[in-house]
Specification:
The complex is a heterodimer of chains A (368) and B (445). Chain A is an alpha/beta fold. Chain A has three domains: 88 residues, Alpha-helical ferredoxin (Fumarate Reductase Iron-sulfur Protein, Chain B, domain 2, Orthogonal Bundle); 155 residues, Rossmann fold, CATH 3.40.50.1860; 94 residues, no CATH class. In chain A, 48% of the residues lie in helices and 8% in strands. Chain A has 20 helices and eight strands. Chain A has a four-stranded parallel sheet. In chain A, helix 13 links the parallel strand 3 and strand 4. Chain B is an alpha+beta fold. Chain B has three domains: 99 residues, 2-Layer Sandwich (Uridine Diphospho-n-acetylenolpyruvylglucosamine Reductase, domain 2), CATH 3.30.43.10; 128 residues, Uridine Diphospho-n-acetylenolpyruvylglucosamine Reductase, domain 3; 193 residues, Vanillyl-alcohol Oxidase, Chain A, domain 3, CATH 3.40.462. In chain B, 32% of the residues lie in helices and 24% in strands. Chain B is built from 15 helices and 20 strands. In chain B, strands 12, 13, 14, 15, 16, 17, 18, 19 and 20 form a nine-stranded antiparallel sheet that branches. In chain B, strands 4-5-10-7-8-9 form a six-stranded antiparallel sheet. In chain B, strands 1-3-2 form a three-stranded parallel sheet. Chain B is globular and about 60 Å long. The two termini of chain B are 22 Å apart. The chains are: A alpha/beta (368), B alpha+beta (445). At the A-B interface, helix 2 and helix 4 of A face helix 1 of B. The structure holds flavin-adenine dinucleotide.
């Protein structure tokens, strides 16, 4: 029996689905999509409907809230993964825009199509004045350390992430951590392929990363990106290495912090892949508590940046963050989070945002 | 055809295999104005109109059957228009859910006191159209008891306001005719969208009284003992604020449950009189909440393997039939097993209140049922079992809650709807009154 047959169509997932929230129409909702699968035998002869359905599968943030809410225990997230894979297999010509991403990953090992050597160029340029020894931290064969940092594509290449990268390394330095960063030897974690349902194309990337990580002899692997975290923790087959989100790492390593004196209006946004899929909820909060920050928890909903939606339907992705901006009055807040993808989405919407590690560094710099 | 014309068929009933080609348009109006244009267009084209709220109804009525029709979803008509705390009411659009209304008025210490298990998705328009009720229906009544008026658009384009007192309309002739035949809110309750499109409603809201409630669980030797205890609670009119029964649970979901049982919350002052009726084990706040959550999820739970199905809902036991609950449950189980449907869960609000087709109230338990679906049963075979259950209910004097799984067998209600439709028009959800309704549903099961 197919998993989608277990959906009893009660509708409890509707109001929680970010796509439904902004479209208000059944076909975008998890129930609507599961229902379409249940009646597919009645409509599959219609080629146009088939095409529309394949497109619909990529109009989803893969935030997993539907699966979380489902009292019938339907693994909806798994259904979406599987159906996406099937869609790409059935009609690759409809997904040329994703094909270029896949090619870029195959050729240059990052999502942007930049030269692999450039992975540790942009942010080093930005950091070198403040941390002149940062280049020594870049992995090269033979170098080992206790901790290895996996930056991920967004943080390696995007100017919007530089403040977080800076805060991350400056914090590690301040802590006298023994660490390396994978630099040009880091390949994409393969999360985009996973979101396309193309895990088959991820094998080489994962194999390479595993070899490099193991060569560092690190016992801890740290990443700021929840998508990378999923891949590294679940699909890289790393044995004897603790794979941690940076909030987990810092919550574990830091005992006290100087209270933040910021009187800003803070709100915390749980990145979906971090809290819902990887179950990391406590550590970001523990750090904020250590910093004595007052914040309000935002609805545990998606920012609209997940599931490749920014690529597959930027218009819907924008609508989701705009909806949240309005419904949760985010305009005057500083939205704290700890995910580069959420950060992009929040910045795109003109919102003020900071990663928790930026606050950590502020505190340590103040002598905490 | 587009996928939106297909996805509109998504609903919680077993009747979900629609003939999509007969759907001639799908609309999600945001305002009464937009809705009235849809109705006008449908009327001009001679099409039927089916209203759909959250699609959580279990009778299949929100599908529109096989009529050539337009489907209208009210999911985007979900504004809470205004709240009048002093007056004790809220004016809302039809697509609002109880949870949404309560989130808004809860901050002011108020509540809308209709709590069906589907309160996260069922709309108030759908709830009045099925006269839904929750675990507090015994003290707070069903949807009709908590509604002051509804505004409805008719296929003629007229707008009417229906309250318990009667009908008001701009067209005085129409108003007079409807009042002559005594139309009131009781007719709209359970009308299953056959009279018109509900657009707005005035709902009663009351303060959260803050009275201290005790949580308790009572386990019974058999269902007759449970039925007898319920009869006594009803007779003594004990103000049980939350009442749920679990009559039967399959081993997959039994875990800590030991059915037949009742989960109750009641005022401290009622403890002694309740204890005279049955042995109550007191539950802490956390334990009560945990039991409530288990119960809330029961209708949606699946067996470890396979899928649950709700063949029939709303077995209504009241008066004499409460004392024979066990016999009825046994007979139902036997019928299900004969047809290879393994009973999965039977539960229901209890003590509870509901209305029969002639608008008289009944008090007892409306038992819901879930079965494990055999892998290889066709829709026709499933529907055959549904019909056998209907006949068994007649034989055992079980009065199905008309607004639930089986409105279609309540002759009194159907006759009344026909009478009203001769005045308000016959364009809304006609299949419900079609003499071939059985066959239409069978094809969709
Ligand atoms: C898990 C689960 C638990 C449930 N628990 C309960 C419970 O505890 N108590 C209970 O009473 N029911 C319960 N139900 C049944 C269901 O929730 C109710 O029947 C509910 O009233 C349906 O509301 P809806 O908005 O989903 O309506 P729909 O299913 O969309 O429609 C139901 C009927 O209302 C009509 N309708 C909807 N909107 C309008 C409108 N604006 N104008 C005219 N007609 C309209 C439709 O045409 C249809 O005939 C449960 C269902 C599920 C799936």
């Amino acid at each position: 029996m197919e998993e989608y047959e277990r959906c009893v169509r009660c509708g409890s997932c509707l109001k929680f689905c970010p796509l439904f929230q902004v479209t208000g129409e059944e076909q975008y909702s998890p129930r609507g999509k599961a229902y379409l699968l249940q009646v597919m035998d009645q409509i599959e002869d219609d080629q146009e409907l088939g095409k529309e359905f394949r497109q619909l599968l990529f109009q989803c943030t893969m935030c997993g809230r539907c699966a979380e809410i489902c009292s019938s225990d339907v693994d909806l997230l798994e259904i979406w993964h599987r159906q996406r894979a099937r869609a790409l297999e059935t009609a690759p010509e409809e997904f040329e825009y994703l094909e270029s991403l896949r090619e870029s990953l195959a050729n240059v090992k990052n999502i942007y199509g930049f030269s692999p050597e450039d992975r540790a160029v942009f942010w080093i340029d930005e950091l070198i004045d403040e941390l002149p020894n940062i280049e020594d931290r870049i992995y090269a064969p033979g170098k080992t350390a206790e901790t290895v940092v996996f930056l991920g594509c967004l943080m390696s290449f995007r100017a919007t992430q530089v403040d977080v990268v800076k805060a991350l390394f400056k914090t590690l330095e301040k802590m006298d951590a023994d660490y390396l960063v994978m630099g040009a030897e880091e390949f994409c974690c393969s999360h985009p392929l996973h979101l396309m349902g193309r895990d088959d194309a991820a094998v080489d990337l994962r194999k390479h990363n595993k070899e490099v990580i193991e060569a560092t002899e690190a016992n801890t692997l740290v990443t700021c990106c929840p998508g990378c975290l999923i891949q590294l923790a679940r699909y890289h087959d790393l044995e004897g290495i603790a794979v941690l989100h940076h909030t987990q790492f810092f919550a574990r390593e830091l005992e006290t912090l100087a209270p933040s004196h910021s009187a800003k209006n803070f709100a915390y946004h749980d990145p979906c892949e971090l809290h819902r899929i990887m179950n990391v909820r406590k550590e970001p909060r523990a750090l904020m508590d250590m910093l004595d920050i007052e914040y309000r928890d935002l609805d545990a909903a998606c920012c609209g940046g997940g599931g490749l939606l920014r690529m597959t339907d930027p218009n819907l992705s924008d609508k989701i963050i705009e909806f949240r901006k309005e419904s949760e009055n985010l305009e005057d807040m500083v939205v704290l989070t700890c995910c580069p993808s959420c950060r992009e989405q929040l910045l795109n919407a003109g919102l003020k945002t900071r990663d928790i590690v930026e606050l950590l560094f502020d505190s340590l710099a103040e002598g905490g | 055809m587009k996928l939106r014309d297909v996805a509109i068929g998504a609903n919680a009933s077993i009747y979900y295999k629609l003939d999509f080609k007969r759907i001639k348009g799908v609309f999600y109006p945001r305002t009464t104005g937009e809705l009235s244009q849809v109705i006008k267009m449908a009327s001009e084209k001679g099409l039927d109109i089916t209203m759909k709220g959250g699609g959580s109804g279990l009778s299949g009525a929100c599908t529109g059957g096989d009529s050539e029709r337009v489907m209208v979803s009210t999911l985007q008509m979900n504004d809470i228009i205004s709240v009048n705390l002093k007056g004790g009411y809220a004016d809302v659009e039809t697509g609002v859910t109880p949870d949404e209304l309560n989130a808004r008025i809860g901050v002011d210490g108020y509540k809308f006191w209709v709590a069906p298990s589907s309160r996260d998705i069922a709309t108030v328009g759908g709830l009045i159209s099925t006269d839904g009720g929750g675990n507090d229906a015994w003290v707070n009544g069903t949807m009709r008891d908590n509604t002051i008026w509804v505004k409805m658009l008719l296929s003629t384009g007229d707008e009417i306001t229906v309250s318990h007192e009667g009908v008001r309309a701009d067209d005085s002739e129409l108003e007079a005719r409807l009042n002559e035949i005594g139309m009131n809110l009781g007719d709209v309750a359970s009308a299953h969208g056959t009279l018109g499109a509900i657009t707005k409603m005035r709902l009663k809201i009351k303060p959260i009284d803050g009275q201290r409630l005790r949580g308790g669980i009572a386990e019974f030797e058999d269902a007759n003992a449970l039925g007898n205890a319920l009869a006594k609670m009803i007779d003594k009119q004990i103000p049980i604020a939350y009442g749920e029964s679990i009559v039967y649970a399959h081993p997959h979901i039994k875990s800590i449950l030991n059915p037949p049982l009742l989960i109750l919350e009641y005022p401290e002052a009622s403890h002694d009189v309740l204890s005279d009726i049955t042995n109550m084990r007191q539950l802490s706040r956390n334990e009560t909440d945990a039991m409530k959550a288990i119960r809330l999820q029961l209708p949606k739970r699946n067996p470890n393997e396979g899928v649950q199905i709700a063949l029939f809902e709303g077995y209504g036991f009241h008066d004499q039939s409460l004392a024979r609950l066990q016999e009825a449950v046994d007979r139902i189980h036997a019928l299900l097993m004969e047809n290879e449907f393994v009973p999965f869960a039977q539960y229901g609000h209890a003590p509870s209140k509901w209305y029969l087709g002639d608008n008289t109230p009944a008090y007892g338990i409306i038992m819901h049922s879930r079965e494990i679906q055999p892998a290889d049963k066709s829709g026709i075979e499933k529907f055959k079992v549904v019909k056998q259950i209907v006949n068994l209910c007649k034989e055992l004097d079980i009065t199905p809650k008309p607004e639930h799984k089986w409105i279609f067998s309540d002759k009194t209600k159907l006759d009344r709807l026909r009478e009203l439709r001769s005045v308000v028009g016959t364009r809304f959800n006609s299949f419900v009154l079609d003499p071939n309704c059985d066959r239409i549903l069978e094809a969709m099961a």
